Amino acid sequence: MPQVAMTVNGKPARGEVEGRTLLSSFLRDNLGLTGTHVGCDTSQCGACVVHVDGKDVKACTMFALEAEGAQVDTIEGQAGADGSLNVIQQAFQDHHGLQCGFCTPGMVMTAAALLKETPKPSEAEIRDYLEGNICRCTGYHNIVKAILAASGQDAGAIAAE
Amino acid sequence: MPKDSGIGASPKRREDVRFLTGTGNYTDDINLRGQAYVHFLRSDVAHGRINGVNTDAAEGMPGVVRIFTGADFEGVGGLPCGWQVTDRHGEVMQEPAHPVLAQGKVRHVGDPIAAVVAETYEQARDAAEAIEVDIEDLPAVIDMKAALKDGAPKVHDDLTSNLCYDWGFVEENREAVDEAIRNAAHVTTLELVNQRLVANPMEPRVAVGDYSRANDESTLYTTSQNPHVIRLLMGAFVLGIPEHKLRVVAPDVGGGFGSKIFHYAEEAFCTFAARQLNRPVKWTSSRSEAFLSDAQGRDHVTKIELALDGDNNFVALRTDTHANMGAYLSTFSTSVPTWLHGVLMAGNYKTPLIYVNVKAVFTNTVPVDAYRGAGRPEATFQLERVIDKAARELGVDPIALRRQNFITEFPYATPVAVEYDTGDYVATMDKLEEIADLSGFAARRAESEKRGKLRGLGVNCYIEACGIAPSALVGQLGARAGLYDAATVRVNATGSISVMVGAHSHGQGHETAFPQVVAEMLGIDESMVDIVHGDSSRIPFGMGTYGSRSLAVCGSAMVRATEKIINKSKKIAAHLMEASEADIELKDGQFTVAGTDKSVAWGDVTLAAYVPHNYPLEEIEPGLEETAFYDPANFTYPAGAYACEVEVDPETGKVTIERFAAADDFGNVVNPMIVDGQVHGGLAQGIGQALLEGCVYDADGQLLSASYMDYAMPRADDLPFYSVDHSCQTPCTHNPLGVKGCGEAGAIGSPPSVVNAVVDALQSGGHKVDHVDMPLTPSRVWAAMQG
Question: Residue of A93, B449, B485, B568 with fewest CB within 10 Å of its CB?
Answer without folding.
Answer: B449
